[in-house]
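Thanks for the sequence, V.! I ran L-lysine transport protein right away. Repeating your input here for the record:
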Amino acid sequence: MALIIGSTVGSGIFSLPQNAASAAGPGAALIGWAISAVGMLSIAFVFQILAVRRPHLDSGVYSYVRAGLGDYIGFTSGWGYWLGSVIAQVGYATLFFNTLGHYVPGIGPDHPVATALAVSALTWVIFAGLSRGIRQAAFMNAVTTVAKLLPIAAFILLVAFLGFSWDRFTADFWGGGPVFGQVQGIMLFTVWVFIGIEGASVYSKQARTRADVGRATIIGFLTVLALLMSVSMLSYGVLTREELAALPDNSMAAVLEAVVGPWGGALISLGLCLSVLGAYVSWQMLCAEPLALMAYDGLLPRRFGSINRAGAPWAAQLLSTVVIQITVIIFFLNETAYISMVQLATVLYLVPYLFSALYLVLLTVRGRGVAHPHAGVLFDDSGPTPSPADNRRHLAVGLLALTYAAWLFYAADLTFVLFGALAVLPGLLPYVWTRLQANEKVFNRFEAVVVAVLVGAGAVAVWGLAQGTLSL
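Predicted structure:
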């Protein structure tokens, strides 16, 4: 539960008042939250159901996609999830030091080089802590999770009882524009703040029982939903939509400052720093796990799965930290905005969400996935057999989650979909090398078609970059 809440309640909740108001009025925001709540809850249920139906698949989120659609699709989902986590890390750290820059001279948005150095130093310090083992990492995450929830709870109580105005909340209730367009605009922001609900599934191999994975997922989701909706909707009752939309990234601090004065802004800024630090720890843990799991399963070189004496996957953590460092340099040289990092990371996270939902649908309809990763290794031949009523319920959940994830791809900016395809292409190199070393067939026909689509989308992205028509 702490891993889910710690990774989900990160930077997004603190920028949520501004993000939501820039896209929608209170009425459309409520509709957007209702759709997101149902959609993301269905995705949470997908992971909970799969944890029960296929308890032997203990390699996290990517293992469901691999079992359902084959090696390469599973690998691409795991690789995309890893890259999304890397980009999220850079976004978290950027917001952390931009906020800290209001109080500490020499860092922040006006000092990009110093901020980049500070982000790099933080990344390597956390790597040093995580390399000491899973128990120490879990303790770090639990402490920061509890610490950051206190300022958020203070915000909700103070705004609800001291600053909320029903007249201000209802003054521009529908936002003065097409409601559907507003709802579509807010959807990616609501998805971003929910990213992390799969945290228990990613670490499912560490759980004592599979039931713990499902319970942690659902309880963590409901807790996060209550926090996010409270912060988002209460803010409309403090400032007008136009005022909220004009706030900086740490808009939650500005809202509380409008209610109780400067000390409220300082309190939330402290909460943001604690929250982002906690999310940074959580996501740097999650960064390494997909790489290590894919190495255990033979989809990446075995050395990526190396474990040190403390039980930490140090090789995967080291590679993740190095790539985070490279991404910091690229993004800071390119002056990439925090919001662009959010949208690109969200698109990459949607891939395992979409394919995990598809796998559940295939299980309920066919009893197995499309293709097994290796001859003689049956991924779908064990686990409890659900009753016909349970199977129908599981099918409904899978179809709802699949529809929601597909619609999110439709609603996403095409630029970030193209850049997402470009980002996963380098993973072909270690994947193909590993398959050739094992004397195994690299792609089947379905996988070859997927590779062709990715290469085509990546080529369009490169062409757009070269012509200046696409940029982050």
